[in-house]
Design goal:
Blueprint lengths: L3 H10 L3 E7 L5 E6 L8 H13 L8 E4 L5 H11 L3 E4 L12 E2 L7 E9 L3 H12 L3 E10 L4 H7 L3 E7 H10 L5 H11 L14 H7 L3 H13 L3 E5 L4 H11 L5 E4 L9 H15 L2 E8 L3 H9 L5 H4 L2 E5 L14 E5 L11 H13 L3 E5 L9 E4 L18 H6 L5 E4 L1 H4 L4 H20 L7
Parallel strand pairs: 3-4, 3-6, 6-7, 7-8, 9-10, 9-16, 10-11, 11-12, 12-13, 13-14, 14-15, 15-16
Antiparallel strand pairs: 1-2, 4-5
Helix pairs in contact: 1-2, 2-3, 6-7, 8-9, 10-11
Bound molecules: 6-sulfanyluridine-5'-phosphate.
6-sulfanyluridine-5'-phosphate (S5P) binds next to strand 16 and helix 16.
Length: about 450
C-alpha cells in the first residue's frame, strides 16, 4: 500500500473535504466541511481504507464489527470482508413493526464489538450509539474513526473509558494539503483558530448592486423593477392578501408610494369584478409607480396554465406585470407567460415544504434557462444573474402558527443576497399599513445598503 499521506491525497480527490463557509448541524459556522460518503464509491479506495483502519487495531479483541449509520456502513462492511470479523448492523431507529430490533445480524450477548465511525466531532452522537449497542448486551471497548475533526470528541469518549483509534485528524490533513499547495498558510491558521474555539471572520462575497444588475438583466420587467427600486429606494413588495376589492384598493393607495410591486392573490377577492377591481388597481399602479405581481403559483401542464392565465374571470394576462409559477410542470409549461415576467417558485418558506435541495437544484435549472423567467422565490441564495424574491419576512414575528417561518430583512439581504422582500401580514394587518410599509421599506433598504458594504476580513 502507498504511504498514508498518498492515500489521503487520493481520498481528497474524491471531494471529501471542502473549504469555505459551512453551517453545521449545530448551527455553528465552520471553515471546512467533511463528507466521507464518496469514499464508498471507489472500491479500491474503500478496500485500502478498510486495511488502513484494520492495521491500527488489536483485532483479536473483537467478535463483531458495526458501523455507525449511514456513512460508516460500507466501511464496516469492507473491514469485515478483509478481516473475517462478522458484521452486525445497527438501525438508525428501531423498527416500529415486527421484531422492533435495533441490531440486526447474528450475535451473542457479551460479545465485544468494534464500532466504526467516519467522522468524529463532539462525540455526542457516538456516545448515544454506544449506549444503544450496550443496551443489547454487546460490549464496546474500541472505536475506530476515519477522520477526527479535533473538536473534543476523542477526549469525551476517552474520558468514558473507550479507546479511540483515528486514521487522520484535521491538523495533519491541513498540513498535507498545505504541503501540496491546496491550502495557504493563512487558511490553515484560520482552521486552527476555529478548532481552538476562537471566533473567526468569514469573507463575505460582495453582492451585486441594483445598478450592476440593471446593466446585466435582459427582461423588461426585471429592468422596470430595478429602476423603481433605485428611484424609490425601496425593495419592498407588499402582499395584499385581503379579501375584498375595497380593502385591496385602500391598501394599494396607502402603500403604493413605498413599494416596487403589489403582490395579489386575485382569486381570494370575494367581490371580484374586472371593471371594479382591476381597472382602479391599474390606475393606482400607474399613479404610484408600482408593478402588479399576481401570485397565482401556476402548477399545471402548459395548456391548462395558459387557460388559467388568459381566461376565466381574472384574465391575468391583461393586467399582471409578472406572475409566480411553480416549475413542477417542466420547462415548456412556462412558455405561455411570454407577455409577462415569471417568478419561479424555487423554494418555499413553509415548514415541511417539499422543495428540498435536490428539487431546488432541478427547479433552478429551469429558472435559469427559461427566457420568461425574471427571478425566483426562495429561502436560499440563487445565482445573481436572476432576481431573488424572498417572502417570509416579518420584523415582529418568527412564525404564524400555520407553518409560515419568518426571517428578518437583515438576514435575507446579507446572507441570501435577496433583491426584494415580500411582506404580507407585517403590513396589511398592522394598525397603520402605510407606516408599516414605510418602516419595512426603510429596514429593507438599509439592510440592502449594508449588504453591499461587507468588507473582507480575513485574518
Ligand atoms: O414560499 C413562499 C412563497 C410565497 S409567494 N412563501 C410565502 O409566504 N409566499 C407568499 O408570501 C404567501 O402566499 C403570502 O402571500 C406572502 C407572505 O405573507 P405573510 O403574511 O406571511 O408575510
Amino acid at each position: 500500500m502507498e504511504s498514508k499521506k498518498e492515500f489521503f491525497l487520493e481520498c481528497y480527490k474524491l471531494g471529501i473535504i471542502k473549504f469555505g463557509r459551512f453551517t453545521l448541524k449545530s448551527g455553528i459556522e465552520s471553515p471546512f466541511y467533511v463528507d466521507l460518503r464518496p469514499l464508498a464509491s471507489d472500491p479500491k479506495i474503500l478496500k485500502n481504507l478498510a486495511n488502513y483502519l484494520l492495521e491500527m487495531l488489536p483485532l483479536d479483541n473483537f467478535d463483531l464489527i458495526c458501523g455507525v449509520p449511514y456513512a460508516a456502513l460500507p466501511m464496516a462492511t469492507a473491514m469485515s470482508l478483509e478481516s473475517y470479523i462478522p458484521l452486525i448492523i445497527k438501525r438508525k431507529e428501531a423498527k416500529s413493526y415486527g421484531t422492533k430490533k435495533l441490531i440486526e445480524g447474528i450475535y451473542q450477548k457479551g460479545q465485544n464489538c468494534l464500532l466504526v465511525e467516519d467522522v468524529i466531532t463532539s462525540g455526542k452522537s457516538l456516545v448515544e450509539t454506544i449506549s444503544e449497542v450496550e443496551q443489547e448486551d454487546i460490549k464496546v471497548s474500541d472505536i475506530v474513526v476515519v477522520l477526527d475533526r479535533e473538536q473534543g470528541g476523542k477526549q469525551l469518549l476517552e474520558s468514558k473509558g473507550y479507546r479511540v483509534h483515528t486514521l487522520f485528524n484535521i491538523s495533519e490533513v491541513c498540513d498535507i494539503l498545505q504541503e501540496n499547495g491546496e491550502l495557504t498558510e493563512n487558511e490553515v491558521k484560520r482552521i486552527h483558530d476555529f478548532l481552538q474555539g476562537n471566533h473567526i471572520e468569514f469573507e463575505d462575497k460582495a453582492r451585486a448592486s441594483y445598478e450592476q444588475k440593471l446593466k446585466n438583466v435582459q427582461h423588461s420587467v426585471s429592468k422596470k423593477l430595478l429602476e423603481i427600486a433605485l428611484a424609490k429606494k425601496s425593495n419592498l413588495i407588499a402582499s395584499a392578501d385581503v379579501t375584498t376589492t375595497q380593502e385591496l384598493l385602500a391598501l394599494a393607495e396607502k402603500v403604493g408610494p413605498h413599494i416596487v410591486a403589489l403582490k395579489t392573490h386575485i382569486d381570494i377577492i370575494s367581490d371580484f369584478e374586472y371593471e371594479k377591481t382591476i381597472i382602479p388597481l391599474k390606475e393606482l399602479s400607474a399613479k404610484h409607480q408600482f408593478l402588479l405581481m399576481e401570485d397565482r403559483k401556476f402548477a399545471d401542464i402548459g395548456n391548462t396554465q395558459e387557460l388559467q392565465f388568459k381566461s376565466g374571470v381574472f384574465k391575468i394576462t391583461d393586467w399582471a406585470d409578472f406572475v409566480t409559477s411553480q416549475v413542477i410542470g417542466g420547462f415548456e409549461s412556462l412558455d405561455c407567460f411570454n407577455n409577462v415576467g415569471v417568478v419561479a417558485i424555487v423554494g418555499m418558506s413553509s415548514k415541511g415544504t417539499l422543495t428540498t435541495s435536490s428539487y431546488r437544484e432541478e427547479a433552478l435549472k429551469i429558472t435559469l434557462s427559461h427566457p420568461n423567467v425574471i427571478g425566483g422565490v426562495s429561502q436560499s441564495s440563487i445565482p445573481e444573474e436572476i432576481l431573488l424574491f424572498t417572502p417570509g419576512v416579518n420584523l415582529a414575528d418568527s412564525g404564524d402558527g400555520k407553518g409560515q417561518q419568518y426571517n428578518t430583512p437583515e438576514y435575507v439581504f446579507k446572507t441570501l443576497h435577496s433583491d426584494f422582500i415580500i411582506v404580507g401580514r407585517g403590513i396589511y394587518k398592522s394598525n397603520n399599513p402605510e407606516e408599516a410599509a414605510i418602516s419595512y421599506k426603510n429596514e429593507g433598504w438599509n439592510a440592502y445598503i449594508k449588504s453591499l458594504k461587507i468588507i473582507a476580513t480575513h485574518n
